[in-house]
Amino acid sequence: MIELEALTKRFGDKIAVDHLSFQVRPGVVTGFLGPNGAGKSTTMRMMLDLDNPTSGTVRIDGKHYRDLPEPLKHIGALLDAKAMHGGRSAYNNLLCLAQSNRIPERRVGEVLDLVGLSAVAKKKSKGFSLGMGQRLGIAAALLGDPEILMFDEPVNGLDPEGILWIRNLMKGLAGEGRTIFVSSHLMSEMALTADHLIVIGQGKLLADTSMSDFIHQNSRAYVRLRSPQQEQLKDLLHAQGITAVEVPGAGALEVDGVGAERLGELAAEHRIVLHELSPQRASLEEAFMRMTADAVEYHAHAIGHPGAPDNPARPADVPAWGAGFDATHKGGN
Predict the structure, then answer these.
(1) Where do runs of H (alpha helix) occur along the chain?
(2) What does the DSSP 8-state code read for residue 71?
(3) Which of 86, 169, 234, 297 is the most exposed place for a label (fewest CB within 10 A)?
(4) DSSP assigned state of 241
(5) Can you say how many angstroms the Cα of residue 44 is from the centroid of all Cα atoms in its chain?
(6) Is 276 helix (H, G, I), strand (E, B) or coil?
(7) Nearby residues of 230 by Cβ (< 8 Å), 6 or more positions away
(8) What does the pLDDT read at residue 332?
(9) What per-residue confidence (pLDDT) applies to 105?
(10) 276-309 in b/e burial notation, b at 16+ Cβ within 10 A?
C-alpha cells in the first residue's frame, strides 16, 4: 500500500502539491489523473524520494522509500523510459539494477522475455524506438517482482498489441493482490484499465473514488432518438411531461432521466417509427473535463473563442483549426 499524508511541495512561491492525502490500495488498478501542471509527476517523484516534500509524508508499506532494504523488491516504477543508460545493452541495464538490489541474474532474462525484448537483449538501448524503450522501462519496474508498481504514461509509444499487453499485465498483477498505480492522459485507455481513480488539480485532491462512481457523479447520461415523424415524437413526449432537447444539425432528440425502454414503448404505442433509440453512456473523458474545468492551468483557445486573436494571420496551407493558437498560462508547473 502507498499512503500519502498532507503531502506538500513548494517551488519558491509556487505550490505544486498542496496537502495531498490518499491511499493506493492493493488488488485494484488505481488511475492517477489531472490536467497538465496538476502536480502528478511531482507527487510520483516524492513517492520514490526523488524529490523531497516541503511537508507531509509518503509511506510504502509503512516505510519511507529511503528506508526500504533493496527497494526494487518492494516497489517498481516507470517514470521515464529514457532514464536508461544508452550506451549499455538492454540486458546490462537490467543487470546493473539487479546487482544493486541483490536480484538473481536469471530474473533479467525472465523480464526481458516477459516484455518481448529477448531478441534485442544485447543491443544498446540508445538505438531503441520509443515503444521498445517503454518495454525496457517496464521490465526494470518488474525486475524485483515487487508487490507495488507505479507507471507514468506506460502505453506511450506502444503499438496496439503493446497497449493491450500492458493493460492485461496491469490487470493481471492487480488480480494477484498487488498495488498498481498508473498515471495517463489517455482517457480511453484509463477507462479500460483502472478500477479506482485519484484525481488532482492544482496540487489538490479533487476525487478519490471508484471509476463507475466518478463517471456517474461527473457526467451526463441520456437517450438519443431519431424519427421521420420528429414533430409527432416531440409532441408525444411533451404530452407525457418528458423534456426533449433538439440537437442542431443532427436531426435527433436527446432525453434525460427516462429510460430507453420507456421511450421505445411510448413510440410503439403511438405508432411512431424510430430510426434511432440509443442510450448514450457517459464517458470518463466527459467526467474528467467537468471535474477539472476550474483546475486547468494551460488553456488553448481556438479561433472565435474568447481569448483568441480577432484576425490571426494564417498561411494558405495551414488549416483553420491550427491557426490562432493561444496558450494562456495561469501559473507555474
Answers:
(1) 40-47, 90-100, 106-115, 130-142, 160-175, 187-193, 211-218, 230-239, 260-269, 284-292
(2) G
(3) 86
(4) T
(5) 14
(6) strand
(7) 251, 253
(8) 41
(9) 94
(10) eeeeeebbbebbbeebbeebbbeeeeebeeeeee
Which pLDDT band holds residue 327 (cuts at 50, 70, 90)? very low
Do residues 297 and 37 make contact, with C-beta atoms less than 8 angstroms apart? yes
pLDDT score at 234? 93
Residues in the chain, how many? 333
> Are 224 and 253 a contacting pair, CB within 8 Å?
yes
- Average pLDDT (72-87) is 86
**DSSP β-bridge partners for residue 58:** 4
Nearest-5° Cα angle at 277, 272 to 283: 160
Helix (H) or strand (E) holding 75: strand 75-78
CA dist., res. 196 & res. 208, Å (int): 8
The edge-to-edge listing of strands for the beta sheet with 14-24 is 14-24, 2-11, 55-60
- The residue with cell 430507453 is 260
> What type of residue sits at position 57?
T
Contact 75, 98 (CB under 8 A): no
Helix (H) / strand (E) element for 327: namely strand 326-329
Query: What CA–CA distances, in Å, run from 272 to 112, 246, 251?
Result: 61, 17, 15
Q: What letter would DSSP give residue 217?
A: H
Dist. CA 263–CA 292, nearest whole Å: 33
Residue 246 scores a pLDDT above 60: yes
Q: What grid cell was written down for 123?
A: 543491443
pLDDT bracket for residue 157 (50, 70, 90):
confident
Q: What is the pLDDT of residue 57?
A: 94
* Encoded amino acid at 134, one letter: Q
Q: Which residue has the cell 433509440?
A: 277
What is the structure's pLDDT at 314? 37
Give 302's pLDDT tier (boundaries 50, 70, 90).
Answer: low
Pairing mode of beta strands 196-201, 29-33: parallel
53-71 pLDDT, tens digit per residue, is 999 999 999 999 999 989 9
Residue 208, all three cell numbers? 478519490
